[in-house]
Amino acid sequence: MTEVAAMTDVPPPAPDAPKKIGMLEQPWVEKYRPTLLSEVVGNEETTSRLQAIAEDGNLPNLIVSGPPGTGKTTSVKALALALLGSKTKVGVLELNASDSRGIDVVRNKIKSFAQNKVTLPESRHKIVILDEADSMTTAAQQALRRTMEVYSSTTRFALACNLSGKIIEPIQSRAAILRFTRLSDSQVLSRLKTVCTSESVSYTSDGLEAIIFTAEGDMRNALNNLQATHSGFNHVNQANVFKVCDQPHPETVKSIIKACQGGKTKEAVAGMRSLYGTGYSCSDIIATIFKVTKTQQIPEPMKLKFLREIGFSHVKIAEGNATLLQLLGLLGKMCEVGREMGEKEDAMVVE
Ligand SMILES: Nc1ncnc2c1ncn2[C@@H]1O[C@H](COP(=O)(O)OP(=O)(O)OP(=O)(O)O)[C@@H](O)[C@H]1O
Ligand SMILES: [Mg+2]
């Protein structure tokens, strides 16, 4: 009885609550996943080749490789849809890294799919999509070699991966390799703006710039960060984006680099100590130092020397030497460069 009373005590949901849950249910990356090849942003050369394959209808075995979040899975799926239309369900076998894809699966599942008879549009092939194929074991890939050849009259393979080097050479030689590159800032920006408009997101241009800065040409990352900032703060500006993305704030890093340029070691070290104290890892910090240095207005010779030193420190940090001392050592070197080159500039001015 008391339980029932307690249950009836639950206050009714706020009128706007269901809307919010509905909004959060579908991630924007999925909601705005292009279904047509023509909607895929960027990598024009690659997508136009895929488009040509879709029009021609003769799909070669394909390997699509490139960095994450650039549209590989999307393009391969869009290609399959363009080729098979309403028959996509029966004519496509999609296996990704979450499915088991050992030798047994190649021997049984893929083989039996290739042997199956299905009615497809004329001169079309069944398609096996192996997403994240670089995570397949070498043995499973070896088992695929002969299957690809034996059933080539009825079945074609489309492999998507991040590193084409992880696909064994015999499969590479049986397939056409298409490469995706990171998307440019303007391509990500235009897509973000489209999404902002259709989701009525309130944003500032520096907010979108911050998303692009953190995404580094990865559209999935950009859309996820946009959605996270929107649902967390209801307004996308620079400060909110950096709160959500949890990366060292580029403005803080900028001021440290500025101090190095002027050879002000004390100031740079104090800035770094407080940044490190906020809990960021060394690799996050050094990655941001690199990105900021790359884009900041610094005289070219000095920038090159800075990047060289940052590179050396990045290697040491990646090797496991991730300590504050490492970062401070880097600042010491950068300040030395700043002082030497700054003096030279001053001397030139005096002359
Ligand atoms: N070129 C693009 N044009 C439009 N949207 C894109 C593009 N690339 C990625 N996206 C967005 O990012 C999401 C993820 O893209 P996709 O799954 O194709 O990435 P991927 O290249 O396969 O990455 P991964 O290597 O991590 O598998 C898509 O749902 C889509 O919303
Ligand atoms: Mg993918």
Automatic annotation (TrEMBL):
Question: Where is the AAA+ ATPase domain positioned along the sequence?
Answer: 58-193
Q: Which residues form a coiled coil?
A: none
Q: Name one GO molecular function term.
A: DNA clamp loader activity
Q: What is the lineage of its organism?
A: Eukaryota, Sar, Stramenopiles, Ochrophyta, Bolidophyceae
Protein name as annotated: AAA+ ATPase domain-containing protein
- Could you list this entry's UniProt keywords, alphabetically sorted: ATP-binding, DNA replication, Nucleotide-binding
| InterPro entries hit by this protein | AAA+_ATPase, ATPase_AAA_core, DNA_pol3_clamp-load_cplx_C, DNA_Rep/Repair_Clamp_Loader, P-loop_NTPase, Rep_factorC_C, RFC_lid
Q: Which SMART domains match?
A: AAA
Q: Which Pfam families match?
A: AAA, RCF1-5-like_lid, Rep_fac_C
